[in-house]
Design brief:
This protein has 202 residues and is mainly α. Helix content is 77%, strand content 0%. It is built from six helices and no strands. Helix 2 packs across helix 5, helix 3 runs antiparallel to helix 4 and helix 3 packs parallel to helix 5. The mean pLDDT is 87.
């Protein structure tokens, strides 16, 4: 029987596909080819938020149903979310430098993202060490609530609403961005499966 590869292998393979696909992303009139890093950074942060939201939902089910499997999924998804969140930050810096010729570190949403990155890594590390299922689920619920509430009130400077991609009317860009998001979610799934294997072996 052929031994099944680790989910981590599939995660990195998916990341390679994402990187290659990004290189051939459609250009945009204002930003040219530099817009490709913007696509990637957008898909990556949305994948992080999707992981945080599903971590909260799994945690809520775990608290209501008192099933350890949901707590385990919440823990794994929370760890996946913070990995995506941490790696989204350098992508954001690259996008700033490539498109605006400088690093606007005082940009409100970037500054808040940094705070949640530091808070998130400390939180997930603490939850991993304490290894209390219900506490992990509760923390993941509170984390995404705090993140969404604070970001909802943050000033938009380099992130003008509504979505410039989905309101562009350019279907080649919209479909490309959707495909990039789909692949990022697949990568997140494989990373979550790996964290879940680690969690169940603890």
């Amino acid at each position: 029987m052929i031994k099944t590869k680790s989910p981590l292998v599939y995660f990195f393979l998916t990341v390679i596909v994402i990187a290659l696909l990004t290189l051939f992303g459609p250009e945009e009139k204002s930003l040219g080819s530099n817009v490709r890093i913007v696509y990637l950074h957008g898909a990556w942060v949305l994948a992080a938020e999707a992981a945080f939201i599903t971590a909260a939902l799994a945690g809520l089910l775990g608290l209501i149903l008192r099933k350890d499997i949901f707590h385990a999924w919440s823990a794994a998804l929370g760890r996946t979310g913070i990995i995506f969140w941490l790696t989204y930050l350098p992508l954001s810096l690259i996008a700033m430098q490539a498109n605006w010729n400088g690093l606007f570190l005082a940009e409100p949403r970037f500054r808040i993202a940094m705070i949640f990155a530091v808070t998130g890594i400390l939180l997930q590390t603490g939850l991993w060490l304490f290894n209390i299922p219900w506490l992990t689920s509760l923390a993941n619920i509170l984390y995404i609530i705090a993140l969404r509430v604070i970001f909802a009130t943050a000033q938009n400077i380099m992130h003008p609403p509504p979505s410039p991609i989905f309101n562009s009317g350019l279907w080649n860009i919209i479909l490309f961005f959707i495909a990039l998001n789909f692949l990022a979610w697949i990568a997140g799934y494989f990373l979550t499966r790996w964290f879940l294997l680690l969690k169940t072996s603890e």
